[in-house]
Amino acid sequence: MIDSQRKISGEGFRYDADGQMACYIIHGFTGSTYEMNELGKYMASQGITAVADTLPGHGTSPEDCNTKVYQDWIDSVQKGFDRLSAEKEEVFVVGFSLGGALTLKLAMERDIPGIVLYAPIIKHKKWTVYLTPFVAPFKEFEEKKKFYRKENKLQTFYGYSVYPMKAAAEVVKLTLLVRMKLGQVTCPTLIMHSKADITVPYENGQYVYDWIKSEDKQLISYDNSPHALMAGCDKETVWKETAKFIISYSGAKLSEV
């Protein structure tokens, strides 16, 4: 096994609030719930129960991640959302990067009062990425540092320091599937994306905004945040906008905060 991740627990988190409003939070590819932890605590402080599960193949090893297919991630997200929906009157969904794509897929299949997308990945900045499914059988891993040499100060890794290439091929397949069906997304949607994002370019957020069929949708841009904008220099603004959106579209009873 290669040594390629921080000492981060593979467990999810849950921060409870007393009201009937909740958000299900989905982390990014090769990341972990750790990158969403501060957000979860803030949501609970605003009367919104926050729950995040670790996606299959994450919090374990890159080798394990390479054994997963995109349907494993879809199934996990559906189960987590359904489990929380059995407890709470309203469950919003917040997704980051790959989690954004999974949130969009979930919105096509479940009745969700609203979704929040952080830097959703839906298109890939280099056409060569689409060759990943063909390259993956011959190359198991790719170091992340290779992609961020010029702007590594903007990058903080919250999980694996390599990309498991077979799993990356599954990301490509998932994004192609979701992109073809964006018109099926009709729930209220808030998209936040940084123009300084070197991992998932800003045009991804704009593309989602343009193609979903939601009557109520908003795209907020940031100039200096990294890809993980919920953990970057504008994080407190991102948290506040997220809570404001959820509260504004919720009919559930708020807890006293």
Please describe what this structure looks like.
It contains 8 helices and 9 strands. It has 257 residues and is α/β, with parallel strands linked by helices. It has one domain (13-248): Alpha/Beta hydrolase fold, catalytic domain (Rossmann fold), CATH 3.40.50. Strand 2 (21-26), helix 1 and strand 3 form a beta-alpha-beta unit.
SSE order: EEHEHHEHEHEEHEHEH
Major beta-sheet overview = 7 strands, mixed
Secondary structure: helix percent: 25-40%
- Overall, the morphology is globular
**Over the alpha carbons, how many angstroms does the gyration radius reach?**
17 Å
CATH topology group: Rossmann fold
Mean pLDDT: 87
Multimeric state: single chain
How much of the residues is beta strand, in percent?
Answer: 15-25%
Give the CATH architecture.
3-Layer(aba) Sandwich
Distance linking N and C termini? 46 Å
| Unreliable stretches | 1-7, 127-131, 149-157
Count of distinct structural domains: 1
Q: In total, how many beta strands?
A: 9
Give the SSE map:
Elements: E1 13-15, E2 21-26, H1 37-45, E3 49-52, H2 62-65, H3 70-85, E4 90-96, H4 98-107, E5 115-118, H5 132-135, E6 141-143, E7 162-164, H6 165-180, E8 189-194, H7 203-211, E9 217-222, H8 235-248
Parallel strand pairs: 2-3, 2-4, 4-5, 5-8, 8-9
Antiparallel strand pairs: 1-3, 6-7
Helix pairs in contact: 3-4, 4-6
